[in-house]
Design brief:
The complex is a heterodimer of chains A (260) and B (274).
Chain A: H1 6-34, H2 38-54, H3 62-93, H4 102-116, H5 120-131, H6 135-159, H7 163-171, H8 176-207, H9 218-227, H10 231-259
Chain B: H1 18-44, H2 50-69, H3 76-107, H4 110-113, H5 116-131, H6 134-145, H7 149-173, H8 177-185, H9 190-224, H10 233-241, H11 245-273
The chains are: A mainly alpha (260), B mainly alpha (274).
């Protein structure tokens, strides 16, 4: 790497070393603060695989699983549908080329950022005592989460549309709503569908564990098994969750690759 | 639904060709089907009565919202300590994930292992790892090794391997093959190609992806405590159980502020990297 001008190369190398030093210092502090050491990495991995080797699924538990499994899928589905419906107006308010005016756009964006900074499981944990234990807090939590994530993803797509058709419609005197329907929607249709499916994947993954905090579905059964130390049941549950998520993911990826 | 060319009936728009009309009918059928299925599953769910929901909202929601205006400041030191631990858990978890994903991603990159067929096992392994929800991994670690931040860190590390490895592999597949060939033409072996062409090309994007995963992991780390795997989730779930909504508000304020600041800093660095 014999570069003719050595000074920038040295500066670059110094920057690399500096970044690495800062990163290592951060890692060291983090290890101190959380009582984590590299030994834990090894013993943890051993414990983990040991756990799996000791798992001994009792397939009789399967009969108990179908009803909560259906509930899990219902929660994910409803969260996705309601979240999408709520996201629809927000998408256009949060995009600079379709919003009403600048303050509305910033308010919409700020609200979306605030909502997205809290994970779905935390929404469910807070909503479970408020809306009573069961699937309802799960549906509401996923609705909120879907709305914020989808609006963020989609508004980036809306902002990237070809401005030509928008200007053409504006030249004919079309209002904002007409512009959205005739020039933005046709351009974002396929991408939007792909995003909705993607969020549905995330929601299925989330809804399998929402029950841990009392928000319905398979997780609630998991809590029961955990309380009774029913490891045979837990093994079956883990395998079922794995299979369901893998299946939904594969189906969704297949549809998405055909769409785009 | 793929193409919402709806309401073609407006007088000023010319009539649509038959094919387009059929696809509009299909779109309506799909949308009605989706909404119909939603209504059906809403009926099938075991939902609480309306009055129960209203009572719950009145008793708890109002207090939670009031807490955002007037939070319990006495909880602030605890919230900040717990959030610091959460932050450091995410740092270590992401680092472990990135270091383990690095070698695995080469096994999943078609241009390094010699074809899509040979990359298939690696890719499948990465997707399979990603399938396990983080919190499920955390439960397994808590059961196997006891509660504490180590369980959360390990769960985050393993879950991140899947995500990072998959994206790392995609990045490697998209590199410019020119430098590889140049090094080989100059007599370099596979190792030279790897260190002087592949690594320099992928490193900035790897770093950017890892930072992005850190943002996700920080969010995830705030809830791992719900199952005893360390971080701010434990004080959170305790206060939720005791309906201490003013303290829950304080914890939420700290979580949201830290996450927003970290996101802003991280996306700034990412923009400079790539």
């Amino acid at each position: 790497m014999g570069q003719p001008d050595a000074a920038p190369a040295i500066a670059g190398r110094l920057r690399t070393i500096g970044t690495a030093a800062i990163f290592l210092a951060l890692l060291w502090v983090a290890g101190r603060q959380t009582d984590f050491s590299f030994v834990d990495l090894w013993t943890g991995a051993n414990d983990f695989f040991g756990f799996f080797l000791r798992l001994n699924p009792d397939w009789r538990a399967l009969s108990q699983i179908w009803a909560p499994l259906l509930e899990t899928l219902q929660i994910a589905y409803l969260g996705t549908v309601f979240g999408t419906l709520l996201a629809a107006p927000l998408i256009f308010l949060a995009s600079f080329n379709t919003t009403a005016n600048a303050p509305v756009m910033w308010i919409a964006r700020t609200i979306l950022t605030l909502i997205r900074s809290i994970p779905d499981l935390l929404y469910a944990a807070i909503l479970a005592p408020i809306l009573s234990i069961g699937p309802l807090p799960g549906v509401v939590a996923l609705t909120i989460f879907t709305m914020a994530v989808l609006a963020k993803l989609a508004s980036e797509t809306v902002e990237a549309v070809d401005p030509g058709p928008l200007e053409a419609l504006r030249a004919t005197g079309a209002g904002r709503n007409r512009m959205i329907v005739y020039s933005v929607l046709p351009q974002i249709g396929a991408t939007m569908t792909s995003y909705i499916l993607y969020v549905f994947e995330i929601n299925v993954r989330a809804s399998t564990v929402l029950g841990l905090v009392g928000a319905g579905g398979l997780g609630q059964l998991l809590v029961t098994y955990l309380n009774f130390f029913d490891y045979e049941g837990i093994a079956v549950l883990i395998i079922v969750i794995f299979a369901v998520v893998l299946l939904i993911d594969a189906a969704s990826v297949y549809i998405r690759t055909r769409l785009l | 639904m793929a193409d919402e060319r709806a309401s073609g009936r407006a007088a000023s728009v010319p009539p649509l060709p038959d094919r387009a009309r059929r696809s509009i009918v299909l779109q309506y059928v799909i949308v009605i089907g989706i909404l119909g299925l939603a209504i059906l599953s809403l009926y099938a769910l075991d939902l609480p009565s309306w009055s129960r929901v209203v009572r719950g909202l009145e008793n708890n929601m109002l207090r939670l919202l009031r807490g955002f205006i007037d939070p319990e400041w006495g909880t602030a030191p605890l919230a900040i300590t717990a959030m610091t631990e959460t932050f450091f858990m995410a740092v270590i978890g992401t680092t472990i994930g990135a270091f383990l994903a690095f070698p695995l991603s080469f096994l999943g990159a078609a241009n390094l292992v010699g074809g899509t067929r040979w990359a298939f096992p690696g890719k499948t392994l990465l997707v399979a790892i990603r399938t396990f929800p983080e919190i499920l991994l955390a439960i397994i670690f808590v059961l196997a090794a006891g509660p504490g931040p180590t369980a959360g860190i390990m769960a985050m590390g393993i879950h991140s391997i899947g995500f990072l490895g998959k994206i790392f592999a995609d990045i490697i597949e998209s590199i410019d093959p020119g430098p590889n060939e140049a090094i080989r033409a100059a007599g370099g072996n596979q190792l030279h190609v790897f260190f002087y062409s592949v690594v320099p090309q992928v490193l900035p994007e790897f770093a950017s992806t890892t930072l992005y995963r850190f943002e996700i992991n920080l969010r995830a780390a705030t809830i791992l405590g719900l199952v005893g795997a360390g971080g701010i989730g434990l004080p959170m779930i305790q206060r939720i159980q005791f309906r201490r909504w003013d303290e829950v508000s304080m914890l939420l304020i700290v979580i949201v502020s830290v996450i927003i600041v970290v996101d802003a800093v991280s996306s700034r660095i990412r923009r400079r990297l790539v």
